[in-house]
Amino acid sequence: MLNTKLKKFGAIAGLSLSLIVAGCGQDDAENDTTEADNSNDNQTEETANVGEEIDYTITGIEPGAGITQATENAIEEYDSFKGWNQETASTAAMLTALGEAIDNEEPVIVAGWSPHYMFAKYDLKYLEDPKEVYGGVEIIKTITRKGLKEDMPEAYEVLDRFHWEPADMEQVMLDAQEMDFEEAAQKWVNNNEDKVAEWTEGVDSVDGTSIELVQTPWDTERSSGYVAKNVLETLGYDAEVTTVSPSVAFKAIAQGDGDASLAPWMPATHGDFYDKYEGEFDDLGENLKGAKIGLVVPEYMDIDSIEDLKAKE
After folding, report:
1. Tell me, which fold does domain 46-136+295-308 have in CATH?
2. Which residues pair with 265 in a beta bridge?
3. Could you report the per-residue pLDDT of 81-98, keeping only the tens digit for each?
């Protein structure tokens, strides 16, 4: 199995009653206009300084993630990103940097996605992406290795039925801030018996059949991966979850080293990997609608679009 192989591999009020009063009103209006112009100048200056304040750096996540490649593409596509770079490390490091910046009301730009608990925890917004480098709203799909339907029809049926809403996933992610993901997933399963019953109704139990689910290292995929694991275990499966980079996840399913994955974000985030191995796995369709990726900033930042940024001189 894959786990073993990885060890290798304002208007002016009132009317004027005299010219004097009117004159005063005009002065007030001119003052208001001047103040507004100064405010706009200050905002423009603040916007222009964002890059300098954050050293023209976007805080990314893992090097192998689809959003990481999309961000590299954005840096190449937008003139406003000339001279910028992306600092990659891990999802945890990105969340730490985001939290520290917000605590100090400092500027920060991170590569982010939703569903994610950070949108419930903080007041955030996506920067507009006029060139649609990050794509639009996405779906998350379920894929399986060829032959799984014949080898494990019960598991295949459950995975084919598996579908939930962003709010479901975010609940698991939020609970996982206080407990481990498997425990948070089991809590969701216990609290959503009707939904789980839709996935398992009429499906026969098995006796200890091993099945390996391959997930990527995002909290969204940890949520779906462990929920699926716990549901399959109620049917008697010996389910295992293995976390790998997106490229490895697709390769593992295509080569039969893993049995299934609920991780592919389509069409943009993991589209390159999907295209590379298309035809070498079974596509069971979406398991969640409304996913999105892009560049995320705190609401207090006076920028709304990637094009509001300024290239490094």
Report:
1. D-Maltodextrin-Binding Protein; domain 2 (3.40.190)
2. 140
3. 999 999 999 999 999 999
